Amino acid sequence: MQKLLQSTKLLGFTLAVVAIFTFTSCAKKMSFSSSRVVPAAEGSVKIKSDKNDNYTVEVNVKNLATPSQLTPPKNTYAVWGTNNNNEVQNIGQLRNSSGWFSKSLKGSLSTVTSFKPRSVFITAEYDSQVKYPGMIVLTTRR
Hints:
Layout (H helix, E strand, L loop, with lengths): L1 H23 L3 E4 L10 E8 L5 E8 L13 E7 L5 E6 L12 E8 L5 E7 L9 E5 L3
Antiparallel strand pairs: 1-2, 2-3, 3-6, 4-5, 4-7, 7-8
């Protein structure tokens, strides 16, 4: 009887730990729609809240041409988020593993925002510090 009671407690504890891990590690994942500008490009965005009500945003793309190969040529890709009021904010610059885009055609961004992005999109820009989005290359909007 005592072993059964210990087993039940252990099972209850294990289920509680699994439930906590499951609920705290949930991340919203969105995929980018096909692009007319760069048709081969594909990628996704993961958004996860933290205990301070901030949001970690992780963007990963592949098969994205270097911005200098676009028409017209650009210098960089900027990542934007849209909040619940449809306000747009520049949340960072897309980079590859070596810093700037190279032959790998892969890019990523990991950043933290104070708002939960409803949608995320990537634009081609001359400067990464732009205040307003330019040519949209990829978007999670439907």
